Amino acid sequence: MSVERTTIPVLEVMGLRKSFGGGGDRPALDGVDLRVEDSEVVAVLGPSGSGKSTLVRCIDQLESIDGGAMYLDGELLGYEVHGSHIRPLRDVDVQRQRRRMGMVFQQFNLFPHWTVLRNITEAPITVHGVPPAEAKQRAMDLLERVGLADKANAHPRQLSGGQQQRVAIARAVAANPRVLLFDEPTSSLDPELVDEVLQVIKDLAVSGMTMVVVTHEMAFARSVADRCVFMAEGKVIEDRPAQEFFESPRSTRLQTFLTRTA
Ligand code: ADP
Ligand code: MG
After folding, report:
1. What beta strand segments (E) does 131-204 contain?
2. How far away, in angstroms, is 45 Cα from ligand 1 center?
3. Which of 5, 168, 189, 193 stands the most exposed, by the fewest C-beta atoms within 10 Å?
């Protein structure tokens, strides 16, 4: 399936560099390029320590960057441009940009003392100014979609890990993000709970949500992602349509990685 290249991508990362200091260490991100089109699902794969989490955390502006640039719908992230001057955005403007992205973490990060419903409605009401009744209706629709309508008044501790992660996904979607970022959303789940979460992500893909998914789930990446990106040592080694990625990996590093994880 070819992707129309004449439009502005939803997300564009160009030459992204990030170091965590620690003198002489190689950077966590060493010039990363990534382009995500509307409704595209991009899986990011690679060994531990290759920079996958740092990449999505930089995109979500949870980390400062040391070089390169990122654009959301063509808008420069983290900086403002005045003629030839570029300066970092104020926090309030960073928050405005971050609201257009949703992030789902390995460790759900739900607020334990709030109900499921409040976990989903809080940001829409207090941050986005959605009227409470409307936020609640939308949250209930989303809970229906992730199969948890009957858990609206439960607290996170009363739910399984898979259920908590489905709530976290509903929460991320409730804010109507332009792009959803996932950082190993199933890695902390017991094996029997992985599929229910992957199914929810798959449904979102079918609905046209634009997504970047860091994952170790090869079968999922192969069947759901449009493109797969392989990272090693802070660099993108391969970025290919999913089928080619798995059937004819070019680099020996990816070949080895796929053999080891098969
Ligand atoms: P991955 O998610 O692919 O496992 P990470 O993005 O977590 O990789 O890490 C990439 C590199 O950056 C690793 O060398 C890791 O040790 C380093 N790193 C990540 N986060 C931090 C941090 N907060 N402080 C120092 N080093 C970090
Ligand atoms: Mg990681």
Report:
1. 179-183
2. 15
3. 5
Residues 212, 217, 221, CA angle at the centre, nearest 5°? Answer: 50
Average pLDDT across the chain, whole number = 94
Ligand 1 binding residues, C-beta < 6 A = 20, 28, 46, 48-54
Residue 91 Cα to ligand 1 midpoint, Å, equals 24
> Which ipTM was obtained for this model?
0.99
Q: What is the mean pLDDT of residues 7-31?
A: 91
DSSP 9-36: PSEEEEEEEE---STTPPPSEEEEEEEE
| Residue reference for tokens 């349509």 | 241
pTM assigned to the model: 0.94
Helix, strand, coil abundance in the chain, percent, nearest 5: 40, 25, 40
pLDDT tens digits, one per residue of 72-113 = 999 999 998 888 888 889 988 999 999 999 999 999 999 999
Strands 79-82 and 85-88: antiparallel
Q: Name the closest ligand to CA 32.
A: 1
Q: Give the SS3 label for residue 218.
A: helix
